[in-house]
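Quick note —
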Amino acid sequence: MSTEKELLSLRDQIDSIDKQILDLISNRASCAQRVAEVKTNAGADSTLFYRPEREAQVLRKIMDLNQGPLDDEEMARLFREIMSACLALEDPVKVAFLGPEGTFTQEAALKHFGHSAVTVPMSAIDEVFREVAAGSVSYGVVPVENSTEGVINHTLDNFMDSNIHICGEVVLRIHHHLLMSDVTKEDKISRIYSHAQSLAQCRKWLDANYPHAERVAVSSNAEAAKHVRGEWNAAAIAGETAAQLYSLKKLSEKIEDQPDNSTRFLIIGSHPVPESGDDKTSILVSMRNKPGALHDLLEPFHRMGIDLTRVETRPSKSGAWNYVFFIDFKGHASDELIQKALKDVGERATDLKILGSYPCGVL
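Predicted structure written out below.
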């Protein structure tokens, strides 16, 4: 068979497969509509149309069944978008994020909920918490830690006074680019805008390439991208989303000092999440200020073989030199073993709050 005939045959096969994919997606969307009808007739809360544990189970199953040539993460990303579009037929998920538009937090929201979700920018982390608590949005997305710069304390502090649940997590690889606008004179750059965390994550690169440029910290990378559109001697450090949103050109790509630079984001909502089969739990614990307090806190987890993934300390609002501990560990709060550990911890602590059990990040 000639090359041209072989290509024509392959294209015919692709056209036929595309038709099958279209029909199957349409069938799936019709099922989603029927699910919405059943839930509505049963008087279900619209905020429960999105089921984090169910979505995590589906994506894990897809990755287990995947035989290539697309890798597991790419296949899961495609199915995430299909589920997002189908869910939008039931009831579009409204998600608040730390704005403005073009931030990494918005990118994390879209990675987790898909591009059919309605994302709503907020100017501060506490506003995201407030919107979720008020029911103005179904979920919120907030940053909690960066692999280079550590924990975001303001996010942890908001959990102290909130009854919001952690419903999920998403880890985003963070790539920073040096951006310029169409008015920027490349050889005259004397000022670089970015968020303080991003400036810190690119410190060595800036020292080597722009040692004399003024580094100006602003509220977000998206805000930095806005600044450079009107300044001929300025550049911004921001991500891909901000570059596209504000039509900026990349002077240099991936300038972060650590190539594996990542940020973990939390999904917050008003309802607890059932078990998904591979879960994580976050708790907040206040301990009495006495010798051995930390040992007393951690001993039950060690004795019962529970895997702690993170322990953070923050000053308590109840008095000087008192502290609260934020702890993440593997497993769901409904597990019998974990319930025993939490009972022991509760008897030793002055206060114990379960912030949420949620599926471990799939993507």
